[in-house]
Amino acid sequence: MEVVNQIASVRDRLKQNRHKKIGLVPTMGYLHEGHLSLIREAKANCEVVVLSVFVNPLQFGPGEDLSRYPRDLQRDIQVAKEAGADLLFAPSVEEMYPHPPLTQVQVKGLTEPLCGSSRPGHFDGVTTVVAKLLHIVEPDHIYFGQKDAQQAAVIQRMVEDLHFPVHMVTCPTVREEDGLAMSSRNVYLTPEERSQATILYRSLSEGEKLWRQGHWLNSKDIVSFIEDQIQTQPLAKIDYVQVLHFPDLEPVHELTGSTLIVAVAVYFGKTRLIDNMIWN
Ligand code: AMP
C-alpha cells in the first residue's frame, strides 16, 4: 500500500489502473472495525482500493470537535494495509482547500431533518468533500456505512442528481460486543459514559422487538418509548429521537407497509453519539 498526500499523486497512480475496477472508501481516519469492514467489502469487489483519510474542516460547525478529533495516521496506515487498501490518500487541509471554497454542493430536503437540524451546514461540508474526492479518484464504487444513514441517503441523492458515474454501496453498522456502534468518537467517553452509551443500541433493539410484535400504531409512541429508555441513563442528554420514512426521510403517517428509519442522537458530556436502525 502506498501513502500519498497530493491530488496529483493520486491521479498519477491511478492513471495506469483505469481499466481496473476502483473502489473508494472515504473516512476521517482513526480507523476502527467499522471502517475496516468497508475496506474489506471494497477489496472483495474491486481490484484497486483507495482509502482517503481526511478530517474535513468544512463539515464541522463552530464549537464542534474539529481541533480535538482523534488522529493517528501511523496506526491507520498499518491497519488499512492489513485490511487490503492499495492506496491511502491523506491530504492536508491546504491540499484539499488551497483557498476557501466559493463552490459548494448542497443537497436540499434530505439534509433538513435529523443531524441536519442539529448541525447546520454539516452536510454541505460532507457533500462538497465527497464530490471533490469523486473527481480526484473517479472510482467505480464508493463505500459508506449505515451507521451514518442520513449521510448515505444524502450522498446517494447527490450521485443521482449530479450523474456521478459511480455505484454507491452502503455497508451494515459494525458494533462493539455490547451493541455500541463503533465510532472514532467513542474514545472521548469516560468509562461511566461508555457503559451508559449502550442504551442507544438497547433502546433501538427493544423498540424494534415491540414494533414487530405489533405494539405501536403511531410513530409518536415509538419515539416516547425510546426517549424513556434513554432517559433511564443519568448521563444521557437526548439531541433527537425521530422516526421517518427511509430513504426519503419524510414524516411517517402510516406505520404499516413502510420502511422506517429510527434514528437517535444523544450527548454524553460533550460527546455526541448517533445510531439508527432500519425497520422493514
Ligand atoms: P468517519 O470516519 O466517521 O467519517 O466514517 C467514514 C465511513 O465509515 C462512513 O461511511 C461511516 O458511515 C463509516 N462508518 C463509521 N462507523 C461505522 C460503523 N460502526 N459501522 C460501519 N460503518 C461505519
UniProtKB/TrEMBL annotation:
GO terms for biological process: pantothenate biosynthetic process. (R)-pantoate binds at Q59, Q151. One of its GO terms (cellular component) is cytosol. InterPro entries: Cyt_trans-like, Pantoate_ligase, Pantoate_ligase_C, Rossmann-like_a/b/a_fold. The reaction proceeds by a bi uni uni bi ping pong mechanism. Homodimer. This is Pantothenate synthetase. The gene is panC.
